[in-house]
Amino acid sequence: MDEAIKKPNVLLTLLEVRALAEFGLFCLVWPALTKAPSGDGHTVLIIPGFGVGDTATVPLRYYLRGLGYDAQGWGLGLNLGTNARVRQKLVQRLEALRQSSGRKVSLIGWSLGGVFARELARKFPHHVRLVITLGAPFTGNPQANNLLSLSQLFTGKKFTQQDRDAFEKRQAPPPVPTTAIHSRSDGIIAWQCSLEQESLQTENIEVSSSHFGLVHNPQVAHIIADRLAQKEDDWQPFKRNT
């Protein structure tokens, strides 16, 4: 745990309003984005960030469905943090999608949803094809973000030693191909907290985006489409010129 990492400053947080412009650009360049490689029809489960639900991921899911993927929301309402019920329901959701399709499921997790996605893949790697995280706070300093206080307000939980121990355990990457997308101008999560440990099946990709815009940033959409288009058993690191 690197407590030297500090949460983003006020200026970066104020600049999160640019997420609106990023969505506008996403819509503007939609025709170009649809030229990405066609999908193979496998299921993609998208887990939203803290405080939002599936509505926030509609544009991304619509885009991926247009490419040929079976893009699904998590179906659990607003993401207000984890508890036994949420964990159970999320596992059931993954298992149902795996069974109905007969194929492994790709996981995309935005912010806190990325933490959930990594843990699902860690515990059920036989169900998961790959993981893509978008500004997810899974390493570094768990307190280096601007949503912790809000999360504690909603859940009534304080950060305890048990939470610290759990945080330390989940920093190792899951045993499936994993792509961690991060932005140094993220105004909510310190970007260093979204970096995956280097290995033969992990990668860190930097983009220029707000935190709230990661889920509909055109550059991110391009990267996601590229990552999902790979053959299941032939994962390769991302190449910028693709």
User: Between the first and last Cα atoms, what is the distance in angstroms?
Assistant: 35 Å
Query: What is the CATH class designation?
Result: Alpha Beta
| Total count of helical runs of at least 4 residues | 9
- What is the alpha-carbon Rg in Å? 17 Å
Gross geometry: globular
Q: SSE string, helix = H, strand = E?
A: HHHEHEHEHEHHEEH
Return residue spans where pLDDT drops below 50 for at least 5 consecutive residues. Answer: none
Determine the strand fraction and express it as a percent band: 5-15%
So, CATH architecture? Answer: 3-Layer(aba) Sandwich
**CATH-wise, what's the superfamily?**
Alpha/Beta hydrolase fold, catalytic domain
Biggest sheet: strand arrangement:
2-1-3-4-5-6
Write the CATH fold name: Rossmann fold
Tally of separate domains: 1
Main beta sheet strand tally, sense and closure: 6 strands, parallel
| Structural class determined from secondary elements | alpha/beta
- On the 0 to 100 scale, the average pLDDT is 93
Work out the helicity level.
Answer: 25-40%
Strands, total number: 6
Task: Explain briefly what this protein structure is.
With 242 residues, the protein is of the alpha/beta class.
Verbal overview:
The chain is an alpha/beta fold and 242 residues long. The chain has one domain (10-228): Rossmann fold (3-Layer(aba) Sandwich), CATH 3.40.50. It contains nine helices and six strands, in the order H-H-H-E-H-E-H-E-H-E-H-H-E-E-H. The chain has helices at 10-14, 19-28, 30-33, 58-67, 84-101, 112-123, 148-155, 161-169, 218-228; strands at 43-47, 70-73, 105-110, 128-134, 178-183, 202-207. Strands 2-1-3-4-5-6 form a six-stranded parallel β-sheet, sandwiched between helices. Helix 6 (112-123) links the parallel strand 3 (105-110) and strand 4 (128-134). The protein starts with 9 loop residues before the first helix and ends in a 14-residue tail after the last helix. The relative contact order is 0.19.
